[in-house]
């Protein structure tokens, strides 16, 4: 008998040391834009502060009652009730999803609407909130904190408008976006029009440190089904076509492909079906995988290589193959808008935080988010806010614990302030808006996401 080996922490230790070195010299990104007038920003920040108890209620109520993708009924209802308590109309069941939420407020300020992405008379910005949890480990991604930041920012802006309807121009949307984990709920909402007429979208995700920006990989789901011919594995194996052989060859080929992949590409496959008993040549085998890449075009290229592998394995074994992409919609990588990021950072500095720039944390530590799909439609940001010790990773029980801690309450409050102030800056500063739109255009403009991989 051989013993189970324990993965070495040597590489993680080195990564951590390198991150610390970069942190020591990193310069927090600054913003050349004025944003909102100081007095107005202070008023909005005070409104957020006044919501501390409500936001703590969101953090802990959702944390104690985690609901997974598309099952977030109680979480969504709680957020809608909170909006109602503050006199805000909100729709539960928006854009085709029963647990999605939408609400809207509008100012009567006398801006020009200049610099809007959509060319509308007045700008519109969406503040997003997630609230789905993970199976088994609960709020190990901290979406309960995201919910508090989004709803808190929106209520603070609504209360500001109630006191002075001319405080700012334009519209603010609150979008409760279900099923981020594995299901790309935002893409479903987008296809149902959630971002039509919206100029920019912002949200914040909890993490182990404050990061202004981090790499998020695009991601697709692939199911490959090999069909063979069953036969007696001893008496007449030559009369069979072995579907498990095909899955096994495909799995091996994916392993070999890795050497030729760009460094940030990820492919992780499992074989979920491969026969029932050894005496029967398997007539069906199923391989499921996630493919991830840093850019939309490299994800497309990776997809084509994986299809070739599936067809090659079928050809070698004389089996049939069915290739099914995207059981749930794909996620694109996140395209970060640096002009908006600068305002997020300025807001975080008011809160005593110093978000680190891109590149401080290794981009090999990357996951995926359906916010990527939003960020290729309209300008957006998806920064990270620290609520956990630096060595705690997302999707772990340790992170779930952090998501119910005092640090989570602090993150919810600072995150809400950051989103409210960033939205306020966007609505108040036409030069900022113009720069946001120009940067988005220079990065390639909007992408037709549903058609991209078709
Ligand atoms: Zn997650
Ligand atoms: Zn998450």
TrEMBL record:
GO terms for molecular function: dipeptidase activity; para-aminobenzoyl-glutamate hydrolase activity. One of its GO terms (cellular component) is cytoplasm. One of its GO terms (biological process) is folic acid catabolic process. It comes from the Bacteria. CDD domains: M20_ACY1L2-like. Residues 223-311 form the Peptidase M20 dimerisation domain. InterPro entries: Amidohydrolase, Bact_exopeptidase_dim_dom, Peptidase_M20, Peptidase_M20/M20A_hydrolases, Peptidase_M20_dimer, Xaa-Arg_dipeptidase. Belongs to the peptidase M20A family. This is Peptidase M20 domain-containing protein 2. It comes from Arthrobacter jiangjiafuii. The lineage of its organism: Bacteria, Bacillati, Actinomycetota, Actinomycetes, Micrococcales.
